[in-house]
């Protein structure tokens, strides 16, 4: 475990700025419509809404969101990244590959509109475009479920079916989607194999605890064996207050153990649960929440194939001002 | 007689008796302050009236009653009379309002009861599966009004997001009002490669291409590493494929028109009906689910090879009727509920 203190010196960060051309949008793109005003401010803004991220890589970008361990936030990540990509203007198809326990539709608030699934498409009961559920908020976001909870899909067939699906989505009339996000089920069973088959990049979601990390390492190993080399990780449910007390691994510790580039760090946030129950992903929340902002930034990096250059480690102790003496 | 008797009791009781007859109505119309105006007329009327009453009586107590009446006409009693007249309608009105309060109260209570009953009834008659989203909404665990229809954050909205600010030195970030310390990421490409090498040594894996149930024979041309063994009692996975893969693939790629299977079934049905029409008998037969069901028997006896399609044909409508039945029964249930509750 590296100590946080070795990184805490701000001066050590500044000369570190990486030589690669793709640097985080936070630090490079300070070009805004109000530059003069910004310069005069001591603190400037990170997320810039007047700029849209530039899409890197070939479309469709087929991204599988996986974790190994269950319940670490794959579905939450898929929903939030998917909708923020849609909000940025990219066309997105989210595939819920969780055959037994699907819940992406619930998180998106689309559960009442799923009539057909991939199983019906394969059976010839409907066409593929009839099985795609278009989101009402963003018409460039579509959801596709693999199967209804009780229907059986022959194993070893799902992977093939997903490859066909991606292929069919490519030459649709309205054009190839920019992103195909696949929400992978937990474990490394048939569902996992199905989900990773068509993917060419992966987002690994993990929490900063030892059980999730061991599963994550295994899954990364399997993905690499399968030829998926572009793997980025997302550390979810980070509690900065616990890191400070050394009760929890820091994100940098996690990174040292797994050796993956960081796509995002999502803090533990009660708003996540609330948004789950509302069927309204966090990234659409107004005002923005801590976790929602983090998801949005992760989506931004995903588009630009970028990774984090700095992470938040702990809460700065509040500077006690003069007036704090009077109960401030 | 009775009137005289009551008159005798006291001057005030006399007033009480006479007053409503004479002025009650008008007072009710004009209110308290107008009583003085009417009083002069009333005095005369009252006098006449009482005298007439007295004359009509024939008992030995006549004198006394006349005295009483005379006494009434004295100044002192007139003042009293006036006062009591003025106060009379007061009693009268308060009595009336108290009764109307009761009536209004009863109305309110009954209305409230009716509302409660109706709400309760609708609660009971509402069909809800336990654990369904609708049920969760009803139990207050989900907010229906908020599911998927909130107003969205506008893309252009926060021009410069005020929630995320990074300090000039890049050492801290302020998010949602909290200041966090930033630490740079130090992972290098070499370190990543070391990890990749470590994992490639630790995990050797080939993506399974074939799924076999325990006990199945291994095909000769398959790499044993790519076989995935599935327990026989797996909850949702089957290894046997009843899907025709080529057809499934064409289904996936189909972009227009009716899906292949439905079209095929439809065509088969059409053919069958045509052949039947050619045969004889059912010359007026059209493709109609109800009709098709009725003619299920002749189909079965005459056409053996297309049994499957025919099965679907007969299944389709029967399933429909079943669901209709359940819907009807549900509906009738709620109806009877309603009747019971009303
Ligand atoms: N950052 C967070 N803060 C608080 N709660 C979170 C956070 N991320 C996820 N959760 C909660 O964790 C639970 C599991 O999340 P989610 O369903 O996304 O996990 P999953 O990996 O998809 O699970 P499964 O393996 O079952 O598919 C949810 O109830 C969610 O609200
Ligand atoms: Mg999930």
UniProtKB/TrEMBL annotation, chain A:
Entry annotated with the keyword Glycoprotein: no
InterPro entries, per database record: CobQ/CobB/MinD/ParA_Nub-bd_dom, MinD, P-loop_NTPase, ParA/MinD_ATPase
Keywords: ATP-binding, Nucleotide-binding
Gene Ontology terms: biological process: chloroplast fission; negative regulation of cell division
Lineage, top ranks: Eukaryota, Viridiplantae, Streptophyta, Embryophyta, Tracheophyta
Protein name (record): CobQ/CobB/MinD/ParA nucleotide binding domain-containing protein
Residue ranges of domain CobQ/CobB/MinD/ParA nucleotide binding in the record: 63-279
Statement: the UniProt record of this protein carries the keyword ATP-binding: yes
Species: Daucus carota subsp. sativus
Protein family membership: Belongs to the ParA family. MinD subfamily.
Molecular function per GO: ATP binding; ATP hydrolysis activity; calcium-dependent ATPase activity; protein homodimerization activity
GO cellular component terms, A-Z: chloroplast; cytoplasmic side of plasma membrane; cytosol
Top-level division of the source organism's lineage: Eukaryota
From TrEMBL, chain B:
Keywords: Membrane, Transmembrane, Transmembrane helix
Record flagged with keyword Membrane: yes
A GO cellular component annotation in the UniProt record: chloroplast inner membrane
InterPro entries: MCD1 (IPR034572)
Start-end of Polar residues biased regions: 315-342
One GO term (biological process): chloroplast fission
Stretches the record annotates as Disordered: 300-342
Composition-biased stretches (Basic and acidic residues): 300-313
Protein name: Protein MULTIPLE CHLOROPLAST DIVISION SITE 1
Organism, scientific name: Daucus carota subsp. sativus
